Amino acid sequence: MQLDEPALVQDRTPAELNAAARAYRDLGALTDRPKLLVASYFDRLGEALPVLAKAPVEGLALDFTGSAAANLDDLAAAGGLPGKRLVAGVVDGRNIWINDLEKSLATLATLLGLADTVDVAPSSSLLHVPIDATIERDIDPQIVRWLAFAKQKSAEVALLARGLREGAGAIAAELAANRADLASRATSPITRDPAVRARTAAVSEADARRAQAYPQRAEAQRARLGLPLLPTTTIGSFPQTSELRVARADLTAGRIDAAAYRERMEAEVREVIAFQEKAGLDVLVHGEPERNDMVQYFAEQLTGYLATRHGWVQSYGTRYVRPPVLVGDISRPHSMTVDWFGYAQGLTGRPVKGMLTGPVTMLAWSFVRDDQPLADTARQVALALRDEVTDLEAAGAAVVQVDEPALRETLPLRTADRPAYLAWATEAFRLATSGVRADTQIHTHMCYAEFGAIMTAIDELDADVISLEATRSHMQVAGELAEAGYPREVGPGVWDIHSPRIPSTEEVVELLRAGLAAIPAERLWVNPDCGLKTRGWTETRASLESLVGAARRLREELAG
Ligand code: GLN
Ligand code: ZN
Fold it and tell me: Domain Cobalamin-independent methionine synthase MetE N-terminal spans what residues (predicted)?
């Protein structure tokens, strides 16, 4: 019987570790019980390893991939697992890349000396990867050879077990083919673009800093934008109606051409801009009608990214996503959003926000490379986005929003690993956003999360304005930011978009009062939570009207 204990790879207190030791002692003492296998994955067990090694269970499953590779030395230091079965997770259950078979065989050979029996296994369940890479017909066959989805990973596990049992000679042909595939990946112009590498290598600390400190920027932005107190805006998308999705499907199927598609999307942008002007919003958006998804839309346009046709993976429940693949060095062959922005800005005298997905989120919602540090990939994506941000600025954008909803989500499980992650993550965001003038306002956005662990990082993004999902927690995050001394502008959401219910002006006023209790009026924005694309036009219109009404009422009060 397998008991899954991934919670033990997180930092645990001595009391928790004692409790685990007692629990397994009691389970082990049961008479007439099945054999017990305790499984952990996604990171190293650390101080929990000796606890489990001593527990009276028959087997342990350990992850030996990525940051969990330290389990190998820790296991040796703990004296191995005499008398126990070790299920050795040497095939990464979460990435989509082929295994380095010779390296895994070497790990397995060491492990043979540390346990009674060694089984070969993936490091975790395979629900994190798609089913079969060989059915991807649109991907260059050379690249397909670098990919391992669930079927390929299962074959790797079986092959490694055979190599372990019968000796490497028994699988010599497969090892040679694997070596050739790894070498072709390591030397391919897809994974090594000298121009991208030269540019990332030349990045300096100053490149990732705005030239002016926030107070000067705020003043320049106030002068340029001339916004009222409690400025109103939205998070970017407007309803993705079925007509928009049908138009996109028609384009893909060749039923309409690019010009017809463009006209359809522009008609939507006209409607979105006209509504916002009429409703009285201050900083407008184009509504993102042309985006299938906030990551995929950019991935499709960046060199070095790959889309799969069948690479679906479960995100949660019955929801499936098809993450794009960061396969090679990232560059931007052309601007990705400037035309849409320009079209929207040409329709109105009010500022329209440029709208991009940030480097950390681009990584978090894609399959990442395992052949270079995440920080390097993030830096490449950041530089591509930096060019987009400065192009938007050149096209007249006074406000550019770079969404980072996944910043909290990819925080490492172990506290000790967090500072390094947050350092490269915030640097990547700043690198993407700091190429602009002082009077260009950078916004960012984050979805609801437990922000406590990343408060400092939110500050280190150095964005001029941050909007956050906050309605359901009744603006709690505004208080948390205030307590942390957050010095810049904040837009805690005041309409819970997950519900079709339309808030009244009074309700929004109440939420804004809660916001004002934490953030001074000069630094408070009025916006809904994120996810307008999932709503219909009826509730969108009415709720945004309530929101503008509430902002106006409070402005009058404050003026009085
Ligand atoms: N700009 C995106 C939108 O409005 C942000 C989505 C998100 O918060 N995840 O849809
Ligand atoms: Zn969000």
Answer: 2-112
Please state whether beta strands 37-39 and 2-4 pair in parallel, antiparallel, or not at all (unpaired).
Answer: parallel
236 and 146 in a common domain: no
* 480 strand-pairing partners: none
Query: Of all protein residues, whose CA lies closest to atom 9 belonging to ligand 1?
Result: 405
Confidence (pLDDT) at 227? 98
Pocket lining for ligand 1, CB < 6 angstroms:
235-237, 294, 355, 403, 405, 445, 447, 530, 532-533
Ligand 1 pocket test target in 281, 290, 401, 403 with most atoms within 8 Å of CB: 403
For 106, 259, 278, 338, 533, the CA distances from 345, given in Å and listed in that order, are: 59, 20, 16, 10, 20
- Per residue in 503-555, pLDDT (tens digit) is 999 999 999 999 999 999 999 999 999 999 999 999 999 999 999 999 999 99
In sequence order, what DSSP letters do the residues of 301-331 get, joined into one string? TSEEEE--SS--EEEETTEEE---EEEEEEE
Atom of ligand 1 nearest to the CA of 531: 10
Q: What pLDDT does residue 220 have?
A: 98
Q: What is the pLDDT of residue 234?
A: 98
Compute the distance from residue 237 Cα to the ligand 1 centre, in Å: 6
List the beta bridge partners of residue 305: 326
Instruction: Please say if 474 is a catalytic residue.
Output: no
Domain match, 172 and 234 both = no
